[in-house]
Amino acid sequence: MAEELPRNRSQSEQKEELESSVTVIEKQAQRRIFKIIVIGDSNVGKTCLTYRFCSGKFPDKTEATIGVDFRERTIEIDKEQVKLQLWDTAGQERFRKSMVQHYYRNVHAVVFVYDVTKMSSFDSMPSWIEECDRHNLNKDIPRLLVGNKCDMKLRIAVNTNLAQKFADSHSMPLFETSAKDDERANHVDAIFMTLAHKLKSKGLFTGNTGLRIPGTYSIADNMVMYYVCQVTSVCF
C-alpha cells in the first residue's frame, strides 16, 4: 500500500493556529511588570521592608546596602498576574553616585521611607523628593510616605500628625508600620498592594515578549542596569 502523504493544512486550520499563537503572545504581553523604587536615609529599614513584602518575614541578618538591592514578587489583582520589582538603593551618597541616574530610569512608583525614631531621617524627606524631581520623575507617578520601626514605641520621635501634614502637603498617603513586627506585616503588604492597584489602573505594562509601551521598560533593560550597579558599587 502506498504511503499516505501528509496533507496540506487548509486555510481555516492555518488561521486557527495563527490566532492561537497571537492569543498566547497577547496574554504574555498583558502581564504587567512595575518598577518601584524605595528611597530614604541609611538604616531606616528600606531593605527590611522589601524583604518582608517579598519573602513574608524579617531578614535574619541585615547589612547596609551597597549600590542597589533588587527583589520582586508576583501578585494577583482582579485575576491578573502583576509583577512588582522593588529597587532599594543605598542611602549614603558615596554608595549611590555612580548609578543614581540609572536607578531613576523608567520608574513607575516611589516609596519614601523614614525611621519614626530618628527625626533626622524625616527631615531628609524634602531632599529625597527634590532628588526625584531633579531626575524628572513625572508628578503623576504614585508616591507613598512610610514611617518604619513603629514597634519601638518608647523611642518614637516623629509623631503621626507631623508626618501626616508633610504627606498631605506633597499629596502622598502616609503609612506607619514595622518591617520587624509580625503583627504589622499586613501593613507592609498594604503599602505595596496600594501601589499595585494604582499602577494597574493606569494601564501601563511591559510584557515578557519584548513588546513595549512608550514610557515602560523591558526586563532586560533593568537586569543589565542591576548588574552594572552591582559592579560599579564596589569601585568607589
Beta-strand content: 15-25%
Question: What spatial order of strands do you see in the largest sheet?
Answer: 2-3-1-4-5-6
Helical segment count: 8
Structural class computed from helices and strand pairing: alpha/beta
Described by strand count, sense and barrel closure, the largest sheet is: 6 strands, mixed
* Count of β-strands: 6
CATH arch. level architecture: 3-Layer(aba) Sandwich
Question: What is the total number of structural domains?
Answer: 1
Q: Which outline best applies?
A: globular
CATH class: Alpha Beta
CATH superfamily: P-loop containing nucleotide triphosphate hydrolases
The radius of gyration is 22 Å
| CATH third-tier fold name | Rossmann fold
Relative helix content: 25-40%
Explain this structure to me?
Strands 2-3-1-4-5-6 form a 6-stranded mixed beta sheet, sandwiched between helices. It has 236 residues and is α/β, with parallel strands linked by helices. It is built from 8 helices and 6 strands. 31% of the residues are buried. The N and C termini lie far apart (78 Å). Helix content is 38%, strand content 19%. Residues 205-236 have low confidence and may be disordered. The protein has helices spanning 11-29, 46-55, 100-103, 119-123, 125-134, 160-169, 185-202, 219-232, and strands at residues 32-39, 68-77, 80-89, 109-115, 143-148, 174-176. It has one domain: 3-Layer(aba) Sandwich (Rossmann fold), CATH 3.40.50.300.
